[in-house]
Each structure stands twice: as C-alpha cells, then as structure tokens.
Amino acid sequence: MSIEIEVLNGEHSRPQAETLFQQIEPHDAQRREKGNENEPGWAHITWADPDLRVMVDDPDSGLVCHAGIFFRTVTWNGQKVHVGGVGQVATHPGHRRRGYASIALEAAVQTMRHHDAAQFAVLFCESHNFAFYQSRGWHPFTGTVYAEQPAGKIRFEAMAPFVLDLKRRAPTLGTLDMCGLPW
Ligand SMILES: CC(C)(COP(=O)(O)OP(=O)(O)OC[C@H]1O[C@@H](n2cnc3c(N)ncnc32)[C@H](O)[C@@H]1OP(=O)(O)O)[C@@H](O)C(=O)NCCC(=O)NCCS
C-alpha cells in the first residue's frame, strides 16, 4: 500500500488537520477532561499552533495521521536556546498500529534536523505514550517547565516533557521556560 507524506505550512493546512482531530476527539474526550489518577487532564490548556505539519495520507481514506512541528527560542536555566518541537501527534482510531505515527514522528525529526538553528527537540505527552517516545530515542526531562497561558506564566505539569538530541545533547535537568504557549 502506498502512503503519501507531506510537510506543509501549519496555518494553511490547519483546516485539513482539524477535520482529523474532530474524528479523533470523541475517543480522547474523557482523558482530556479528567486525566487519570496520575495525570490532571489537559482540556484547560491553551496550546500553540504548529509552524509545520506532517500529514500522512492513505490513498483510500485521506489524512490518517498528523504531527505538528514547532520552532521557538526558549530558555534553559536562563540561557536562550532555539529548539524544535513535536506535538498534536494523532492517528485516526481506525488506522492505528500500522506505523503511521512512527512515520510522522520520523518525518518531523528529519525536518527539525534540517533546521540548522534547532539545538534539541521538546515534546509533551501522557504516560501511556512514554514507551512510544522512549523507544524512539526521546528522554524524559526531569527538571521544571514553565509555559505561557492566557492568564500568565504557569509551571507546566499537564503532560510530561521529553527531549531529543539534535545539534547538541538535550538537557534532562534544570529549568526550561517555553517562552510561549506549550505544544
Ligand atoms: C499515540 C498514537 C499517535 C499512535 O499512533 P499509531 O499510528 O497507532 O502509532 P504506530 O502505529 O506508529 O505505533 C504504535 C504501536 O504500534 C506498533 N505497530 C506499528 N506498526 C504495526 C503493525 N503493522 N502491526 C502491529 N503493530 C504495529 C508500533 O510498534 C507501536 O508500538 P511500540 O511503541 O511498542 O513500538 C495514537 O494512538 C493516537 O492518535 N492516540 C491519541 C492521541 C495521542 O495520544 N497522541 C499523542 C500525543 S503526544
């Protein structure tokens, strides 16, 4: 079976991505609102919009998987550093466990590696996805994360941070200020 993988401008491709999210949303609604015994849920969080999007299309079904790509100057222990990021990784429930998210993540990582300024990459995920990212080279960031929300800066704990080495080894400790909305 042939699939098509594209990396598109985030804003222009937003309507297409939102159609996929609407199909996925009912499956995730309870977790998003309530979290679980270890996680607070994340319905209250305002998220950043991706700069780029990896879109995986199946010839029969259209868009089946999406990964957002982000670039931003953040601070780590008070020092400015330009990073890449991945977020909004999602596969249509009827097309999971076929490797689509792995393909989208790999395309996102390749895109960040080609972006010369990005020193390391950051993502946030729920505990049921830790193994997925760890087996693909991402490490937990065990320091403190701050991010902006409409009401001001917060300590960001709604999801766990993971980092990936790009141009330099990613830090796993310290204070990471996202200097903007989380992704
Ligand atoms: C998490 C999510 C994106 C994974 O999408 P996916 O397309 O099913 O992911 P993949 O198929 O690449 O990988 C999922 C698992 O299926 C396995 N898999 C891949 N191809 C397979 C195949 N042909 N047959 C059986 N298993 C397969 C993978 O090995 C992987 O398991 P592993 O992590 O133990 O290696 C998807 O479940 C989802 O959209 N969840 C809801 C939203 C969400 O939680 N997003 C993450 C935000 S950070």
Automatic annotation (TrEMBL):
GO terms for molecular function: acyltransferase activity, transferring groups other than amino-acyl groups. Keywords: Transferase. Residues 3-161 form the N-acetyltransferase domain. Pfam families: Acetyltransf_9. This is Acetyltransferase (GNAT) domain-containing protein. It comes from Bradyrhizobium erythrophlei.
